[in-house]
UniProtKB/TrEMBL annotation:
GO terms for MF: hydrolase activity; transferase activity
Protein name: Glycosyl hydrolase
Keywords for the protein's UniProt record, in alphabetical order: Glutamine amidotransferase, Hydrolase, Transferase
PANTHER family per record: GALACTOSE-BINDING DOMAIN-LIKE SUPERFAMILY PROTEIN (PTHR40469:SF2), SECRETED GLYCOSYL HYDROLASE (PTHR40469)
Signal peptide (residue range): none
ThuA-like domain sequence ranges: 80-315
Matches recorded under InterPro entries: Class_I_gatase-like (IPR029062), ThuA-like (IPR029010)
Pfam families associated with the record: ThuA (PF06283)
Length: 325
């Protein structure tokens, strides 16, 4: 549009207005939408918005956000996952002692979560490698050996720049991500990773206490065999922002928490919709996450609903079973 025939002051005003409008529209598309308040679910807490463009990527329960680029050949290579449990801050008891460098260092009985995941793979026909060595994640080619990468209670800045780049390229190439428990307390200042978690981060939690998990979707591979309600003990993470554009698979009934959901930093909980597990396609890949898994006993006990839940999440994230149904 030309403003050459308009009064110079009017032309300048119109030009400025159009420029501001373009910037505003661009911001609305590329920046993450503000989620609902922590105390409520809000309109975006489930799968109502398919194929959202947030964090500069396509994300949501819509399979059109997935990149099926032929980077995996399970018929030839089988299924294999990588468990990454590096901590750069507080370390959960279920991780046990810090692991030695390299791939598949010796595990002890105290490395309960890592050992539990290795056993889960052995019992269900997929291979499991494990590491806390960030150099094992420093190239996409290395990561493409795995159908899914599992962040098992990683803490704070668990990745360096090469590993961040490799993880992003891996996900863009159709890789699977599984985030368990303190994967939510990781890479706080990396917006892309926040989006991978569902547009959310860990904020705080109340006392470790028993509660009742509510299975909100029975169609997903991670929930198909679960009862509608099941008892579990955990820290019950409170989140900020509230997860958006995801399919929520399970919540905790806050009314069953003896000490309530209020966290140590004052977060009031999430009321009637307190999510604990959800899934989404993200930037070409698959992401299945759960805040559960705090107690050592959760990893040492065979046949629990929790381990069945995690198994289904892993199998769907790596493409062995239908994802995010």
């Amino acid at each position: 549009m030309s403003f050459t025939r308009l009064h110079p002051l009017l032309a300048a005003a119109l030009t400025a207005a159009l420029t501001a409008a373009v910037i505003l529209v661009g911001s609305a598309v590329l920046r993450p939408a503000a989620g609902p308040s922590p105390s409520g679910a809000g309109p975006d807490s489930s799968a109502r918005n398919l194929g959202r463009v947030e964090y500069g990527v396509c994300r949501g329960p819509d399979p059109s956000c997935y990149h099926d680029w032929g980077n995996f050949d399970p018929a030839t290579d089988g299924y294999r996952v990588l468990v990454y449990s590096r901590t750069a801050g507080p370390r959960h008891a279920h991780l046990g002692p810090v692991l030695a460098a390299g791939l598949n260092p010796p595990l002890t009985a105290a490395n309960a979560a890592q050992s539990g995941l290795v056993e889960l793979g052995a019992d269900n026909g997929f291979a499991v490698d494990w590491t806390e060595d960030v150099t094992q994640l420093n190239s996409p080619a290395r990561l493409f050996r795995y159908n899914a990468v599992i962040f098992m209670s990683t803490t704070r800045d668990a990745l360096d720049d090469p590993a961040q780049t490799a993880l992003r390229q891996y996900i863009r190439g159709g890789g699977g991500f599984v985030g368990i428990h303190n994967a939510f307390g990781t890479e706080y200042n990396w917006e892309w990773y926040e989006g991978l978690l569902g547009g959310t981060n860990y904020y705080d939690h109340g006392r470790n206490q028993p509660g009742t998990v509510v299975t909100t979707s029975r169609r997903d591979a991670s929930t198909a065999g679960l009862p509608g309600r099941w008892d579990f003990t955990d820290e019950w993470y409170n989140l900020v922002p509230f997860p958006t554009g995801v399919r929520i698979l399970a919540t905790v009934d806050e009314a069953t928490l003896p000490d309530g959901a209020t966290g140590g930093s004052g977060h009031p909980g999430h009321g009637r919709n307190h999510p604990v597990s959800w899934c989404q396609y993200y930037d070409g890949g698959r992401s299945w996450v759960t805040t559960l898994g705090h107690e050592v006993a959760a990893w040492n006990t065979d046949g629990t609903y929790f381990k069945a839940h995690v198994l289904g999440g892993i199998e769907s994230a790596m493409g062995r079973k239908p994802f995010c149904r």
